[in-house]
Amino acid sequence: MSDYELKPLFSRERIAAEVARVGREISSDYEGREVVVVGVLKGSFLFVADLIRAINAPVVVDFVRLASYGAEMSSAGIVEMRKDLEISIRDRDVIIVEDIVDSGYTLDYLCNKLLLQDPRSLKVCTLIDKRARREKDIEADYVGLTIEEGFIVGYGLDYDERYRDLPEICLVEKA
Ligand code: IMP
Ligand code: MG
Fold it and tell me: Are residues 49 and 86 in contact, defined by beta-carbon separation less than 8 angstroms?
């Protein structure tokens, strides 16, 4: 995309409200049990930062770095791990925190990989559930916001590494 514009989609207030709601859902499901939050870099870094402060239970945070996208907007379906976990998740309650689930390949890969380490439980939380292009039969347990299709940026999400710093979420549209 050479010529495009950014159209506001979700305001910072809307994002904050949904993050607070998801935090409440997780707090009531785990009720005082320690949760290991596994953030998927880079896109989830702001969501993780806000979500862990909205969870009313002891939280441990770690990150993995996965890559499935190049500079363009569609998935190659090939996932690569560029940074692994640094803590043990064996016998622990784990929640994967993703920025966005699109085809589902990234999440499918990560779930299978983490399950090999025998966590006590494994759930998935995504800020955005993008429905239209799902290829893997996989659903997040906790969802912040849902969109049908389109490419979005802001609040951690990038287009070719740009716009992660936007406080709101915008749709990238052809100008
Ligand atoms: P999936 O493997 O197709 O589900 O893609 C998941 C990854 O693709 C996410 O973690 C994002 O990094 C990236 N991605 C998918 N859709 C978007 C989008 O609309 N904006 C920014 N990144 C996206
Ligand atoms: Mg990305």
Answer: no
Q: Which residues surround ligand 2, an ion (CB under 5 A)?
A: 43
Burial class (CB in 10 A: 0-12, 13-18, 19+), 37: buried
**Distance between Cα 130 and ligand 2 center (Å):** 14
**Ligand 1 atom 11, closest CA:** 100
Give per-residue pLDDT as tens, 99-122: 999 999 999 999 999 999 999 999
Answer yes or no: are the C-beta atoms of 34 and 58 closer than 8 Å: yes
CB-based contact 170:8 (threshold 8 Å): yes
How many Å lie between the centroid of ligand 2 and the Cα of residue 158?
6
C-beta separation of 38 from 94 below 8 A: yes
